[in-house]
Every structure is written in C-alpha cells, then in structure tokens.
Amino acid sequence: MRPAVLAALVLVLVALACYPAVGTGYGLRSVLQAFMWIALAGSWNLISGLTGYVSFGHVAFFGAGAYTAGILIASAGWSWPIATLAAGAAAGVLALAIGGPCLRLKGPYFAIAMLGLNEVLRALVSYFEGLTGGGNGLSMPTLDATVPIYYAMGVTALAVTFGARLIIGSRFGLRLMTIREDEVAAEAMGIPTFRHKLVAFLLSAIGPGIAGALTARDQGYIEPLSVFPLATTITMIVMTLFGGKGTVWGPVLGAVVLFVAQEMVWARYPYIHPLLFGAIIVAVVLAMPRGILGLLQLKYRLPRTV
Amino acid sequence: MNIVITPAMIGQVIISGILSGVLYSMVALGLALIFGVMRIINVAHGPLLMLGAYTTFFLYSAFGLNPYLTVPISMAVLFVAGVVLERTLVFRVVDAPELSSLLLTFGISIALVNGAQLAFTSDLRAVEYITGSWVLGPFAFSKSRVIAFVFAGFLTGGAFLFLRSTRLGKAIRATSQSREVAMVCGIDVGKIHRLTFGLASALAAAGGALISVIVAIQPEMGQIWTFKSFLVIVLGGAGNYPGALLGGMLLGLIEQLASLFLTTQLSEVVAYVLLVLVLLVRPTGLLGGRQT
Amino acid sequence: MAPALEVADVHKSFGGVRAVSGVSLSLERGRIHGLIGPNGSGKTTLFNCITGVERLDRGRILLDGEPIHGLQPYEIARRGVGRTFQMIRVFPELTALENLLVVTRGPRAAAEAHARELLAFVRLQDLAGEYAGNLSYGQQKLVEFVRMLMRDPSLVLLDEPAAGVNRTLLNELLDAVRRLRDAGKTVLLVEHDMKVVMGLCETVFVLDHGEKIAEGPPGVIQSDQRVIEAYFGR
Predict the structure, then answer these.
(1) A116, B171, C72, C171 — which has fewest CB within 10 A?
(2) How far apart are CA A109 and CA B101, in angstroms?
C-alpha cells in the first residue's frame, strides 16, 4: 500500500474511533449501521464474490447470531461480549452444517437451496417457541451499550475487510477464484474445491453471526421477522455487486455509498429504495458486472488487493 | 403426540395432495421450460405468479368479473409481460455465466415484489368467490381446489399438446434439445426464447389466478413458489417436461403427508430437506434428465 | 514393474447410451501414446473417467499399480495426473502467472520463480501479468499446458493439443511433448490430426463406439482394416 493511502486510512480509522466522543446519538447509530453493512457485504463477498456460489440466504447467519446471543443473554444471563463471540461461533457451526451438503451442489442448485434456507430457519425459530419465544419474540434486559457496541461493530467491519485483504492477496484466495472461473478445471489442477468452498463459507458466516448478535443486543428485542428479513440479504448483495464483487474494498465502497444514499435520499421515500435495489442489481449485472472497483481495476491495472 | 392414522385420513391426504399437486405441476412447467430452453433459473417466476394473482384480484374487484373468467386474461397479460421482460433484459444473459442470470432474475424479482408493494400496498387481498367443500363419503373436496385442479389439469394438458403437436411447440422442444441444431434447422432461436418466457409467465399467471381464490394475495406471496417450482422440477428431473407433472404430484403428496404428522410450519422444512437430499443423491432429478 | 497407467474393462454410459464399453489399455512409462477414433467414439469420456470427472460404471483404473478410480478429481491430479481440455479452460480473470500459482504451496517467492520459469519455457514471460482471458487462443493454450506442468505430473493427458493451433505453435507444442517424454513422463493424447498422431506417438489406441478396436504402432494402425472401416465406413 502506498504511504499516502495508508495515512488516509489511518486518519479515517482514528476519526471513526474518536467519533463517539463528539457524535450525536443519531450520528453514532448511523455509523454503527454503516459498520454493520460493511461487515455483511464483505462477508457475502467472501463466498459469493470469490467462489461465485451465490448465497441467497446469507441473512440466515445474521439471524442465527442474533438468536444465539439473544438466548444466551436473556435466558442464560451471559454478558453480551461473550454471547457475541459465541454467536459468531454458532454461525460458523451452522455454516458447516449447511455447507456440508449444500456446497456439494453445483452453483445454481446451491443458490436455490440457499433461497429456501431463510424460510426454513424462520419456521424453525417460530416452531421452537420454548427457546426462542416464537412469534412473540425475545426481550433482553435493558442496557445502554451503544458506544461499546459501536466499537465492537467497527472492529468486526475492520476484521472482515482485512481478512478479505489477506485472503484475496493469498494463493488460497486465488484458488477460491478458480472455483468461480472454472470449477472442473480447478479440480483437474488438484485443487480440493469442496474443502475450499466450505472454508470460505465458514469464514463468510462468522461476520454476519457477530453482526447479528451485536444488532440484537443493541435493539434489545428480536423476533423472527426482524432478524431474518430477505431485505438484508438483498442489501448485502446489492452493496457488494455495486462496489465490485471479488475485490477487497468494493463491498466497503458499496456499503458506504448505498447506505449514505439510503439515509439521505431514499429515507424520505421508504418504499422506493427496495425497488431501486432491484433495479441496481439488474443494471449492475447488465452494464457493469464487475462493479465500480472491478471496472477501475481492469481499466487502470490496479493490483488485485485493491 | 399420539396420532391415530385412519385409512380415511390417508385417502384425504392423497386427494388433497393430488388437488394441489397439479397446480404445482403447471406452475413448475413454466420454470422447467425456461430452464430447458434458455438454461436460466428464473428466480422471478414466483413474483410473476403474484402479478397474475393481482390481475385477477383487480378484474374481480373493479369489474366484478368471475375470477375463473379472468384466468385467460391474466395469462394473456403476463404473457405479454414475460415477452417484454425477455426482450428487454433477460435475453442479455442467455449465454452469460450462471451467476449473471441468477443475479439478474433475482434483481427482477426484487423489483417486481417491491413495485407491487408500492403499487398495491402490502395489504392482504382476497377474492372471496367460492368457499366450502363437497363431501363424498368420508372425504372432503374443497370446492376452490377442485376447480383449480380442473383448470390446471386442462391448461397443463393444453401446454403439453402445444409442445407435442404444434410447429412452435416442436420448435421449443428442438431448441431445448440443442440450440445449435435448432438454428441450423432455421428456427429463430430469439423468437423461441421470447415465446418460452411468455408462455412460462402465462403458466405462472394461471397459477396465481387460480390460487387467488384459495389464499390471500400479497406482494410477497410469490417467492416461495419459485422455490417450490424448482423443487418440483428437481423431483421430476431437470430438463424433462413430463417429469414436472410427476414432481408436482409428489410435492403435493409429500406436503400433505408432512402436515399430517407435523405442523404446517415444519412442512416447509421437510420440503427443504427433501430438495437438498434429492439434489445430493440424484443431481439430475428423480426421473433423471439429460446430461448438460 | 506395473505400467504407468492401466485401464481395465472400463464401462461408462449416460442414460441408455454407452459412451465407453469395456475398454482396456495400458500405457508404458516414458512413451507417447495416441488415442484416436471418430467423433463420439468415447475418447473424451475415457479421459474424464481417468481423471475422475466421471464415475465408472464398471472397471478399474490403476496408476503405477495403485487403483485411482473412485478418487476425487483433485486427488487424482495430486497423484501426478495432469490434463488439458479440448476447449481451453484457463481461469480468464486470473493473470497468466496466477493461473500457474494457484496450484503451488510453500514459500511464495520460490513458487513464483518456478511459475515464471515455466512461462518462459513457452515464451510467455512478458505476459505474466496479463489476464488469461485477454490472451490469444494460442497463448491460452500454452498457459493451460504449462499450468498442467506446475505439479510436475508423471502422466500427461492432452485433449486435442493441435486443434486450432497454427503451424509454428504446433511445432513448439509437439517439441514440448517430446521433451516431456524424454524427461521420463508418460503421455496420452487425443488427436484428430493424423499427421500429428503418426509423427509423434509410439503406440496408438483406436476407439469406435466406445470400444477399443485396434492397438499398435502407427504404421500398423494405418493399414488396419477395422480402423479404416471405422473412419470411412464399409
């Protein structure tokens, strides 16, 4: 990384770290949400952007994390930081359980299987009422932890992004991309594609699990509809596609730009923005399949780790 | 839980399963056609069904039209919508990697659902036209489902007749066998793609029109149909059109059976596990299919 | 000593169509073998069976005396079977260098040096940083070829190496294949260009309708009645 870029990055990080001292409650919450979207989009990118296996149900890990933390906090009385870590682990375990069978399916079949996953988890959560409160939801004891949660979410976003930087810069990351490019050829080259996909899927689930836990703690109340919305999956997909799938900073760019646009412009027309998200997906796929960063990368021959 | 299963209950399950199964077959046939001819999994198939249901609803509530008379209108409207969609957007990803077509139709599906939310609001709508059941011995036949069964049966039969006997139908089948050969034979493949997409949308619309009498209408009603239609083609054998018939019946029966032992909530879980299992064991579907 | 590769009574059908039925052949270490036959005679299917892309319906495949049928494709590749494809299959959005790097382990600097060496071997060193998808057809073919060599395979399977390649490039490729043979590697190639097969191979196997109908040195094969019939009809 060039020194100027590095310096700018450090400056942004310092500013964000100091922000809670000066920011308003609304501002803090907005940045917190931006962090969440960076973590979610960056995580989706790890499996879908790199291997090309489209996860249409990634919010499942967000919801699983929210419920794990919610139950541990509300019923078992765990402190939220520990519960959050446990939620990340639980999301990882869920990813292994689902990925084990589903990642053996070829691309489109996997996508459809993931499309159904959301409904299934929502149904399961509603069914096991004793544990989850079912449709009545689950309330956690009140606690004002917005500032620590702000930092926790920020660290999560940072970890996902730098994790992606490490992976994409490595030969492991290149091998994940060979699965996207040509899975049969990758196998013929001696790359164990299933194992690679599973690891990518596992890594891509932990971030959303943690983000789900933090969001649950922040809101203090969860219910099946609020933590498994298809809209969340849609949003992470749109952000990643827009910014540039398969790149390090594309999901960050997409998350920030679209989140700001959503807050500033579309918030006034709440029904328009999901519609616009659909339109953006269509437009990006047709006109700019590599997204903004992918396009710049190709045009200016930027290194892969941008 | 202690459930006593009587033969009458089994009979009822079979009846209900077959009644809803044909509806599944019809809607899934549309998805199978697009998959077979264009090699695209149309994630927007369910939302097109939703639009069909709304068409029926508005014709019914605004003009007092008999909902069953709206079926052909609904189909015609969605046929045109399907052709337009293909002509403007979908044709661009026919030869693109699967990732593109999946994401594109996913984007279309989101736009349709949210456009419907914007235009029609999320309020639940209902077409209350016919309720109750005909009782025959120990068995009950839900009136609306029987009528839907008859319609779906005729439409599916008609679709097969069209595919089997007409020039265009043969051209569609030829294109799904091999696009190159179809081209060499002078078939306008672009036209066949548009026709297929229109036809598939019309079949989805018929499904929407028919179930509008049975269940509540709302913008998000469609998505689960994409999933179920896909399950039907997988059960029947991808790329194998008659397989969709069998797959629909199978799904209908399995769902009804599951609801006998489990709550309705979990019947979706059963369907899901089934999908993954079938895909793992027979990636080309139970009846097998062509190798691609 | 066991043959480099032994294919014993291999069967494979799709639906009702028998693509390969009862083929047996054995490859001698350090020699170049040709696999020929009319279109649809099962050559590529046999390749796919050897490399684990297709599961056998029946039969055995032994590499240096060890059974490899039933292994995953990547396991077979790791045991030293390298292949190229009929339609080129490079990773288009990876650079030429990255195409080679993906198979390496251990220190990256050494791996990169090795990859650059192989690219230089086919005179592509200056295009190492170019996306493989932007290379010409012939260059992609070369990338695919040296990518296969990255693992230093003991058995090399080439699916139509001469197809769509100009004279100069072809001679380079054939030369490279001979050098592989001289380095002790076993080669099996599917090829339609009879000149290539006859000039390069020491043993030729002929498939027709999924069955092996002849085997022998090129000169003998050329005058074999069954082979002539298979190609030109009765």
Answers:
(1) C171
(2) 13
Q: Which residue of C has its CA nearest to A172?
A: C102
Chains touching C (at least 3 CB pairs under 8 A) are A, B
Tokens of A112: 């459809």
Q: How many CB atoms lie within 10 A of CB B223?
A: 24
Residue in A299, A305, A255, A301 with CA at minimum distance from that of residue A277: A255
Reduce the DSSP state of residue A107 to 3 states and report it: helix
Is residue C15 less than 8 Å (CB to CB) from chain B? yes
Residue B172 CA to residue B167 CA, distance in Å, equals 9
For chain B, the residue count is 292
How does pLDDT run across B122-154, given as a tens digit for each residue?
888 887 777 777 888 778 888 888 888 888 888
| Continuous H helices in A45-135 | 50-51, 59-74, 80-102, 107-127, 129-132
The pair of structure tokens assigned to A305 is: 């780790």
How many domains does chain B fold into?
A: 1
C60's enclosing H/E stretch is: strand C58-63
DSSP structure class, residue A120: H
pTM: 0.88
Quick check: A193 contacting C, CB < 8 Å?
yes
Picking from A264, A252, A289, A262, the residue whose alpha carbon sits closest to that of residue A16 is A252
Residue A96 placed within a domain: yes
Domain that holds residue B159: 26-127+141-222
Q: What is the ipTM of this complex?
A: 0.87
The residue type at A63: G
Residue A4: inside a domain, yes or no? no
